[in-house]
Amino acid sequence: MVLVKPVIFVPLLTLVLSVVAEAGSCWKNTTCTGPENAAFPGVWEKNIYAPTSRQVSPQYILESTGARTDYKQGAGHNLLTGNGSQIVFDFGIEVGGIVTVNYAAPTAGVNLNLAFSEATNWIGENSDSSNGAFKDGDGYLSYDISTAGEGSYTMPGAKLRGGFRYLTIFLTAPNTTSDAILDITDINLDIGFLPTWSNLRAYQGYFHSNDELLNRIWYSGAYTIQTNMVPPDTGRQIPVVDYGWDNNATLGYGDTIIVDGAKRDRAVWPGDMGIAVPSTFITLGDLESLKNGLQIMYDTQASDGAFAESGPPLSQTGSDTYHMWSMIGTYNYVLYTNDTDFLQENWEGYQKAMDYIYAKVGTSGLLGVTGLRDWGRFWQGGNNSEAQMILYRTLETGAELAEWVGDTTGLSSSWTTRAQNLKVAVNADCYDDAYGAFRDNATATTTMHPQDANSMSLLFGVADQDRVQSISQRLTDNWVSIGAVAPELPENISPFISSFEIQGHFEAARPDRALDLIRRSWGWYINNPNGTGSTVIEGYLQNATFGYRGNDGYYYDASYVSHSHGWSSGPTSALINYILGLSVTGRVGSTWQLAPQFGDLTSVEGGFTTSLGHFQASWNRASSSSSTSSYELSFKVPDGTTGTVVLPAVDGGKTTLTMNGKVLEWGSDETKTISVTDGGSYQIIVRSA
After folding, report:
1. By C-alpha distance, which of 642, 652, 630 is closest to 676?
2. What CA–CA distance (Å, rounded) separates 278 from 570?
3. Which among 425, 421, 403 is positioned nearest to 412, based on CA atoms?
4. Segment 305-346, tens digit of pLDDT
5. What burial class does residue 346 get, using C-beta atoms within 10 Å of its C-beta: 0-12 exposed, 13-18 middle, 19+ buried?
6. Are the C-beta atoms of 451 and 503 separated by less than 8 Å?
7. Is the whole-model pTM more than 0.85?
8. Domains, the chain
């Protein structure tokens, strides 16, 4: 096979990444409910990976063998000549949907064949693996050209390919001579994801900084989320087919639903929502897919209150942690939408879910895990510390939900008390004072200190305050040059769990560590020449190869790894919530906080949208050093909202502060908190006197 340097492929180039989106329709007969335009137009739109149209074509030809491709428009320029000849087309980004190929066949009796891959590692005549039943990929689609002349082939709907970047088209000629010819005159892909949006670039949030790598990472997370929102009738078929793949299973209701990955598993996984829901809110601002995903979990809830680990048709059960993630997902959804009707309709099921999980708390005050399935880690069960952190978050958010639903039976107070009791028990029984981090279990002989539990202990506020810095430091012991290796999943780097870790470092006021890990892990993948260059990967190995270990204890076929997995999009929400510092603290932003952490950046701006309006902020400072020099902070929030601004002090003596031209006293504290009692535009200048 001859490797050809990628060049612009003129005849097939209809995908132009500009900031002006084309008008178009939504997926098939889906009703368009998405926004028409971006909420925050600007130069940052150049970083959006989403195409300008739902109809796209390849951008490049990557490889060819036994073919002539001279990149001129019209017939006779993309010729497959001879049995086994092939052309590898590169769409330039992760895409997914239904492909149509137009061709001209001088003779009948040849086969047009299509194979797909997300990564360059598996381009060729065999697709990468999405089915999961095979160790050597999914095979290919084949179309028998029985009549000579011009024709067209469109993939069957059941064969929708959810995620790929590379399309290999090759010719087989079982009944003809070796001089068989097939002319590929056009290729068109009908994008299948985010089916309710006609304008895939109409983002309702944005991020921009002086660090171009971080900008690219932010938008790769945003685009990943888009590819994970699919028509509910395009799930992976279970049981899996004997050969190839079928994506025609029913996942739930409505016109769109969130799944874990573009290529696979294409099912609702509540654990993934722990990261994917905040990312969706920050970027798209459209949470319909999340609502439909959560609703199917409630509608398939067991009679004893247990939620399944995944939605139908996969419908795996037996996970205490994913049971709780459905509950946390409920909180996040209502926080971002104020959809109290959804909460009221499912409140009985939520209470049953809380009773189910809390019944497993023993006399020690710790959860006894019996549902052992989890995100892929080993050694789940007993008084596992990760599960304790998730239960704490479940109780804390449940207490808020009880208030929002108007409960008058004292549930909020009861669940808050349970959370505080659990916090005491976890710190007493699971913390390893000698090491300075949480053990994997309350068992004293446990010597492993997991990434998941320790990251969540910081993010969810479980760790005693005097232990926070030690835990943050100990987490860095797991780092290698390309990310954080999870001790609970040896040899593996999980961007899912690392998404919690970066937020944990931010909560520990260590933006230096959080940014370092983002650049190591997500920077490694976005710059990887073998990846999609546009999305975030499910997981990979510490030896810098693609692979990921399943929770059944076997190594996946490396091509089975998803290269567009929403559970890995943590930097997308973290860069807004912590580096820019803008977050909602009350439903749909009725209350908010702005608490920037500068790290080594000099300028950042961003925003998001709720039903109350636009939230936008920016800051800039003179220096990129770790010391805090003078800076300016501007923000705009909707009328009727209230919030707090938490300002870091500048180094070098007395700090002066003006807000909209008015001088304010700073005091002697390291930070200054300002209460803002109404919406509007504000400008703050902080300088060293």
Report:
1. 642
2. 8
3. 403
4. 999 999 999 999 999 999 999 999 999 999 999 999 999 999
5. buried
6. no
7. yes
8. 2-191 (2.60.120), 206-576 (1.50.10.10), 581-688 (2.60.420.10)
